Amino acid sequence: MKTKKILALLLVVSMVAVLFAACAEEGGGDSEWTRPEDEGGDVDDAYPAADYDNEDFTFLVIKHTDTTKDYYGGPYIDAESYTGSVINDAVFERNLAVEEKYNVNITTREEINGDPAELLQTLVMSGEFNYDVIYGWGYKLGNCITQNYFADFNTLQNVDYSKEYWSPSATDDLTIAGKQYLSINDISMNKLEWAGLLFYNKQLMEDYNVESEFGASVYDLVREGKWTLDTYLNMLTVVSNDEDGDGSITKNDVYGLVDGNGLGTFASNASGVFNTIKNDDDTYTISIYDQKVLNIAEKVHAVYSDSDYVKTYEELWEGADTTGYQDMWEYARSFFAQDHALFCAGNAYLTSEFRNMESEYGILPLPKYDENQEQYYSTVDCLASIFAIPATYRTDMSTAGPERTGMILEYMAAKSNEILLPKYYDEVLSNQRLKDENDKEMMDLIRDTIRYEFTDMMGLTTFQETKDAIYENPNTAQSTYTRAERRMENELTDFYLEVLAMAEKNESAE
């Protein structure tokens, strides 16, 4: 990247002018974002300088797809030059600041459609594990933890995981036996981009007088702590209209929700029920099922199983010609964009699909269980890319080590919080037509309530399979749980003990 610095600096003045013009034209300047914990002053003053001899600091980026639509990763790690793209230029500016401060060269190696387990094994066996940071699918990296490919983030120096530009909830949710092998910070927007939320169609909300039935706007319901599961499910049943009069609610009519699998399993996490509870001794207790979960599953199933209210992706794309769409998932969500559904389950990444939507739309956090619940919970998808640190520091760079890795990640995350995050808000909220200040407030709330489902991120598949089965048929929930309980216990215990043994072995070898 450094070879392009002189040219980049010469272009800065002209590019700034272009960017200001673009913002004015696209509405990008309508929304300003302020860091939640803005302490004032220059970010650089708080971080010590260092000289790393112009050596490479390399991210191994394991991408999900080679298409232009990069699900789960995003263009947040590297940029070659200024291009006029809001996100690209913010990434370039951030990386340039890091390179200048530390005399280091930020580089990436991309593996397209790579499977982390196979790739990492190949790199280790060939002696080519010369990377500083790994960036790839969350649950697939989680599956690799027991193979001893990753270092504990706690071994890094010069970092403060309590800072909001890291993800304090990741430290809490993803620490195993006192070790943290996966983490995320504001270098990538994935912790916000892939947090669960709801889109809603403002025109349909008005046309069907939905808010009037509940005595407040949906935004006020959120603010007052009254945006609950019961309220949300009731809203879904208000909007169901056989527009073509053929006697049934088909995908071309109007209904309450477009949803991925039509099970609504999000409701457990959103209600504060996670698959495990971490005990004081760092062990885990399974908490995937109890009377509260059964109550939630019964409520959700009663609505989600009715095709008059909820359309699944599979129902929408079955037999359809999806020409003109990048994939079947985008095609399914287009029914929300075309005013057929009041709600669409998703995340901030999907706002680009609604850029040309004629009706106005907004975003909301996932609903609480009831008004007694203290806060909302927004769980990050386990497919979202996340960071890991190689267990062995590269030998081809003399400055490599926990001091350098920690110092660069800390500063890079802080600069991202200063440079990239505001641009991301601007891009998602303004340029994707979410210009309402209420939506900015909702986005802040979602960011502040992010959580990670431990079992999903660690790739413990029995848990999600069991949850799916409980929500698919609540009438057999007890027997479903009973049959799966031993398998879940074994999977969780085996994973925990393997991590514990691996950590102890590594510590004794030091």
Short description:
This protein has 510 residues and is an alpha/beta fold. It has helices at 5-26, 86-102, 116-126, 138-142, 168-174, 190-193, 202-207, 218-223, 229-238, 266-270, 291-304, 313-317, 328-337, 402-430, 437-448, 454-457, 461-472, 477-509, and strands at 55-63, 104-112, 133-137, 150-151, 175-176, 179-180, 197-201, 255-259, 276-278, 284-286, 310-312, 341-346, 361-364, 378-379, 385-390, 450-451. Helices cover 42% and strands 13% of the residues.
CATH architecture of the largest domain: 3-Layer(aba) Sandwich
Strand order of the largest sheet: 2-1-3-15-4
Mean pLDDT: 89
Number of contiguous helices: 18
Note the beta-strand portion. 5-15%
Number of domains: 2
CATH superfamily of the largest domain: Periplasmic binding protein-like II
Percentage of residues in helical conformation: 40-55%
| Rg | 23 Å
What is the number of strand segments? 16
Q: Which structural class best describes the helix and strand composition?
A: alpha/beta
Q: What's the shape?
A: globular
Q: Which residue ranges are poorly predicted, with pLDDT under 50 across at least 5 consecutive positions?
A: 2-39
Summarize the main sheet. 5 strands, mixed
Q: What name does the CATH topology of the largest domain carry? A: D-Maltodextrin-Binding Protein, domain 2
Oligomer status: single chain
CATH class of the largest domain: Alpha Beta
Give the termini distance in whole angstroms: 35 Å
